[in-house]
Amino acid sequence: MSQRLIELLLEALWETLAMVGVSAVLAALIGVPLGILLLVTQPGHILARPTFNRVVGTLVNATRSTPFIILMVAIIPLTRALVGTSIGTAAATVPLVIAAAPFIARLVEASLREVDPGLIEAAQAMGASPLQIVTKVLVPEALPGIAAGLTITVVSLIGYSAMAGAVGGGGLGDLGIRYGYQRFQGEVMVAVVVVLIVLVQLIQSLGDAAARRLNKRDRSQANG
Amino acid sequence: MIVIDDLEKDFGVPSGPNPVLRGISLTIEKGEVFGIIGRSGAGKSTLVRCINLLERPTRGRITVAGRDLSGLAGPALRAARHDIGMVFQHFNLLSSRTVQGNVSLPLELVDMPRGERLRRVDEMLDLVGLTDKRDAYPAQLSGGQKQRVGIARALASRPSVLLCDEATSALDPETTKSILALLAEINRTLNLTIVLITHEMQVVREIADRVAVLDQGLVVEQGRVFDVFTQPTHPVTRSLVREVLNLELPERVRSRLRHSPQTSPGLVMRITFTGPSANEPIVSEIVRRFGVSFNILHGHIDYIQNAPYGTLTVEAGGSEAGLQAALDFLRVKSLKVEILGRVAAPDRAVA
């Protein structure tokens, strides 16, 4: 493997990590609160706002049903307004965040829904406010599930980030397409895929370990 | 003191009304253990959940310690709830928090400073005997230990009322006894009012002072536990009492009763002893004074709140005059005597 190839790979890996890392953090900052809102504003829940819930739910579904490649192109004006350009790694994070946030929101909502309603009731009986129920009961109890959801999101973001190459986003996917596909350098394609496999494995293992550590429900692991 | 005044709860749906509580009025005194018993679906869980407004009453008023809760909402309601502890059938502990963290939760809700909070948690864990489990997670505890954590958590904010919603129904008999003993002790030492919802008469007998029997959303009977046990009037109460006080005659005796002519010499009767008379040697006195022989068919002595309550089913033999004198004597002693029938020949096998 040539020195040049290694440099290219490292640079692309860095771009991918930056793109995925930044968009994952931003998407989580939007998606987690959104997921909480989606749950607690449901009819009969602690902050029931049925109309609000329906509107937000519809928006989330609409974003999630738009294919990423179309979303990316469709929001170019927004991207330009936010980062000043529609080309490059920074520009690619905007569509990545917009695609990942609703995804995280639904996963968070599903994890929170798994929390035993009896715990909410117990907290209400103690005189907890809705905000206290969210921060002291719902989120801590759902944390293993939320960690698993974020892991899935990061892995999906790696896949999406390859498409961001289409707007000059750079990264591993872009490298594979430009060198491996367009210039017929098969070994670059193979190297890119191997790096991606290792990366995904690593992230999944880290995520699983975190979820296990947070889960105190299983007697054998409660000491962890 | 808790006053429930003409409480109604209707889980009405668009298709029609669905009344669960239909006009309940109860007064629960400060410092007493009050049992609310009923079959599943009688509305007892809804009733206890109305006391801290987890369920909002459709009509009627709930007053706890002089404060009318029924109109409260938001911060005022939450403040009132700090004064009412609640213990649940399935414990409802946070799996993500240790024992200490769980007991600390109600104190965090009112922003109690950390030092004071930890002291209070230690005090509560000491009270329920779980100091050594402070850093364990609920998953590592037995059912009884979990309920002790539940009780410690409910008491952490020093409430004046403790609501127990089937608190022992998920526990085995042995553990149930120890949890009830703990509740009784807390009631004594803290002068805490305890409202206990259960479907088990055993639980009521063990620790309640007074009891209300709930059936189809109505209080069908209420009073001191001893009285309700010994003189149940409503069919539901009778059947609940029968489960713990075994008053049924054995089949062997019943079949002989049915087949014997009314003129047979053996007289079968059930004598009920309550209160002080249960301690007197009445049977031996009758045998001595009236020359009547007793063949004991079935007997049972129970202690309800430390007062003895016994029934004795006997087959009495002797002269008509002797039997009559014996019956009169029992009535003078104001014991309850029921004549169940006559049997052909005394069955010596059981004597």
Automatic annotation (TrEMBL), chain A:
Protein's name in the database: D-methionine transport system permease protein
Family under the similarity heading: Belongs to the binding-protein-dependent transport system permease family. CysTW subfamily.
Domain ABC transmembrane type-1, first and last residues per copy: 13-207
Lineage: Bacteria, Pseudomonadati, Pseudomonadota, Alphaproteobacteria, Rhodospirillales
Pfam families cross-referenced by the UniProt entry: BPD_transp_1
Record keywords: Cell membrane, Membrane, Transmembrane, Transmembrane helix, Transport
Record field: transmembrane: 12-40, 52-76, 82-105, 146-168, 188-211
Cross-referenced PROSITE patterns: ABC_TM1 (PS50928)
GO biological process, one term: D-methionine transmembrane transport
GO cellular component: plasma membrane
Subcellular location: Cell membrane
Membrane topology summary: Multi-pass membrane protein
InterPro entries the record matches: AA_ABC_Transporter_Permease (IPR051322), MetI-like (IPR000515), MetI-like_sf (IPR035906)
Recorded superkingdom: Bacteria
TrEMBL record, chain B:
UniProt-listed InterPro entries: AAA+_ATPase (IPR003593), ABC_transporter-like_ATP-bd (IPR003439), ABC_transporter-like_CS (IPR017871), ACT-like_dom_sf (IPR045865), MetN_ABC (IPR041701), MetN_ABC_transporter-like (IPR050086), NIL_domain (IPR018449), P-loop_NTPase (IPR027417)
Highest taxon listed in the record's lineage: Bacteria
GO molecular function, one term: ATP hydrolysis activity
Residue stretches making up the ABC transporter domain: 2-241
Entry keyword set: Amino-acid transport, ATP-binding, Cell membrane, Membrane, Nucleotide-binding, Translocase, Transport
Biological processes per GO annotation: amino acid transport
SUPFAM superfamilies for the chain: ACT-like, P-loop containing nucleoside triphosphate hydrolases
GO cellular component: plasma membrane
General function of this protein: Part of the ABC transporter FtsEX involved in cellular division. Important for assembly or stability of the septal ring.
Family listed: Belongs to the ABC transporter superfamily.
Protein's name in the database: Cell division ATP-binding protein FtsE
Source organism of the structure: Magnetospirillum fulvum
